[in-house]
Specification:
There is one protein chain. With 257 residues, the chain is of the alpha/beta class. The protein is 54% helix and 15% strand. The chain has eleven helices and nine strands. It has a six-stranded mixed sheet with strand order 1-2-3-4-6-9, with helices on both faces. The longest helix is centred in the C-terminal third of the chain and has 22 residues, at 219-240. It starts with 7 loop residues before the first strand and ends with a helix.
Length: 257
């Protein structure tokens, strides 16, 4: 997959594909090119007959800091780009849910906003001890329409999902396991090795049975996609052009200099 943007690196390890978000200096925040690559990669994996399992992680100290504020600024004023961004969000969600091979998230650090959604849309989630999840869409004036509203109620129930989405507070790796948002906590230095070992175990399983089981379990998410995704994306579209969101992003950019 050499034609993908360099911000997303895909490496073959036998039947396992390692996907690495590659903007470590920006804590793997989703630039335009990274967001597009994340939308494109899942369909390519689905047509690769040699893939049996996938590991998704971030390079550097973060899994992903979520959205890039410069992208948010362009989304506010460029309608065509806004629709492209929302379509890519749609393809990230459906691509991960429908990817035939199981996806293991190796959450090596903060997984925030889009990063949180990427982790929650994965099939199995391993978290480093220092990692955490957070979805602060509302805090930056955005509706949490591109993942959180879809997945969290299925995992923790509507009341807890609302608390996590409304307040955007950090969920530690240990608390994520307790809530059912992650499978287990791994020492930081062992995270990628354990994720790759798990992916190799998955890759060795009978492929038809494994993929059929993923498809059956993900039927719950497919129902949510049909009933909820467009409502969530429309809510996010409306909030993208709100004065509140524009003011918050402008203030954050000004503080960063």
């Amino acid at each position: 997959m050499d034609d993908l943007a360099p911000e997303l690196v895909v490496t073959a390890h036998g039947p396992v594909r390692l996907i690495e978000l590659n903007r470590p200096g920006q804590r793997n925040a989703a630039s335009e090119r990274l967001h597009t690559a994340l939308a494109d990669v899942w369909a390519r994996l689905a047509t690769d007959g040699e893939v049996r399992a996938v590991v998704l992680t971030g390079r550097g100290r973060a899994f992903s800091a979520g959205g890039d504020f410069h992208v948010m600024t362009r989304v506010q004023v460029d309608e065509a780009f806004r629709e492209q961004n929302l379509d890519e969000a749609r393809r990230i969600i459906t691509g991960m849910v429908r990817c035939p091979a199981p996806v293991v998230a190796a959450v090596n650090g903060p997984a925030v906003g889009l990063g949180c959604s990427l982790a929650l849309l994965s099939d199995l989630v391993l978290m480093a001890e220092r990692a955490y999840l957070a979805d602060p869409h509302v805090q930056v004036g955005l509706a949490a329409g591109d993942g959180g509203a879809l997945v969290l109620p299925l995992l923790v129930g509507p009341a807890r999902a609302k608390e996590l989405l409304f307040l955007g507070e950090r969920v530690s790796s240990q608390e994520a396991v307790r809530l059912g948002l992650a499978n287990r906590v791994v020492p930081d230095e062992k995270l990628l090795d354990e994720a790759m070992d798990l992916a190799r175990r998955l890759a060795a399983l009978p492929v038809t049975a494994l993929r059929g089981t993923k498809r059956a379990v993900n039927a719950h998410l497919e129902q949510a996609i049909g009933a909820i995704m467009e409502t969530g994306l429309d809510a996010e579209r409306r909030s993208m052009i709100s004065a509140e969101h524009a003011g918050i992003v402008a203030g954050l950019l000004a503080r960063r200099g």
